[in-house]
Amino acid sequence: MAESVSQLPRQSLFGLNAANFLQAEMVGVILPILNCLLKQSGWRYDSLGVATAVGGLGTLIFQTPAGWLTDRLRCRRAIFAAAAIFVGGCFVAIPVVPRVPVWIDSLLFASGAAGSFFGPLLAALALALVGHAGFNRTMGSNQGWNHAGNIAAALLSMAIVSAFGLSAVFYSVGLGSLLAAASMVLIRPRDLDERVATGLTRNEPVEPSWKHLLHNRAVLFLFLAIFLFHLANAPILPTVALYVKKLGGSDNLMTATVLTAQLVMVPVALAAGRLCDRWGPKPVMAIAFWALPLRILSYTLARSPAAVVWLQGLDGIGAGIYGVAVAVFSADLTRGKGGFNTLMGLLATALAFGGVAGPILSGLLLQHLGFRTTFYAFALLAAAGGTLFTVLVPGRAAAAGRTSAAALVAQASSANPRP
Q1: Quick one: pLDDT band at residue 412, thresholds 50, 70, 90?
Q2: Which of 254-263, 268-277, 340-349 is predicted with the least confidence, judged by mean pLDDT?
């Protein structure tokens, strides 16, 4: 029998939202602040690009294994807690160790490797709690809390930078990591359906499999489109932070580049979950793909640091949509087949490929050709990704996402039997 809305696992959903909020607060503003800290220590632009890429390399190597392990292991709460504490420890160590590449790059690589578990684990816990029927809107809510965490991190960082300097921000990350780990206690094991967490429904007698993903052309084209998307997107936030400083902006204004985007991301993420229900994920995600080249081109028109900060608000459209729509795509492609978390890991690997190559390329372009040429080059890459996604990635019928509120509650409840 369907339960009422009040009987849904509110405590566990609160714990999941808290985990999304605190995980974002841990890492939301680290890269721009790290780049400025290292620049003050005499690092070149190309060296900054390599350091950012090394963190992406750790994610790249471990992202697909992280998704595969998330499908196989049921101790997902404990894994998330351990990863959060480890990542926090890496960032706390950065202001303490010598500011030379061997130390900084090693810590960034390790943090990227551990952080690769965050995405698959949080998505798996969401699917396990509400099932496929309520997944779109739950992901919208989760991503809204994630972006709210970034807003809190940006505001906190601005206060900390003003009072104690750039280095002090890294210590606040340590506290955030401990709180993120503690949030797992709020998610009750009896509220989790471990089969649904892998992409299966309650009717399949088989174990989750990932091999069907290798024969799916939609997965291939989506992988390539996401790679181009993040190849263009990954280096832009740190590059914009450096551009603000080059134009004479303050440390606080540099930190505000994160805040401006996140203020837009919260309502966009909430809307994305509802729009995926109505339209399906493809048209929603297409907005994210085409907002990116327009945003990058807009920076070439800015002549003041304040203008750059305001234009950074356009980042909220693409990023707010992406985190929701990519999970909805993955749930659609693996429903009843299994391998949901493996696919999330594969698509995150595409993101990580871009995260490695993009910063290296941006560092070289900045060092030798300047900011304007760098922005033009990455706008072209973003447009290529948008074209590939629009033309070659299939969508699904919009009607498939339309479910009444009562049906959502009934299906979510049936996917989570409780004693």
Answers
A1: very low
A2: 254-263
How far apart, in whole angstroms, are the C-alpha atoms of residue 310 and residue 392? 33
The tally of CA atoms less than 13 A away on the side-chain side of residue 393 is 26
CATH classification of the domain holding 197: 1.20.1250.20
Distance CA 77, CA 121 (A): 8
Residue with tokens 């300047």: 370
Pick from 57, 84, 32: nearest CA to 255: 32
Q: Per the structure, how many domains does the chain have?
A: 1
Helix extents (H) in 280-339? 281-298, 305-311, 315-334
Where do the H-state alpha helices sit in 212-314? 217-233, 236-246, 251-279, 281-298, 305-311
Residue among 363, 370, 360, 361 nearest 45 (CA): 363
344 with 123: CB under 8 angstroms? Answer: yes
Q: Where are the alpha helices (DSSP H) in 370-404?
A: 371-392
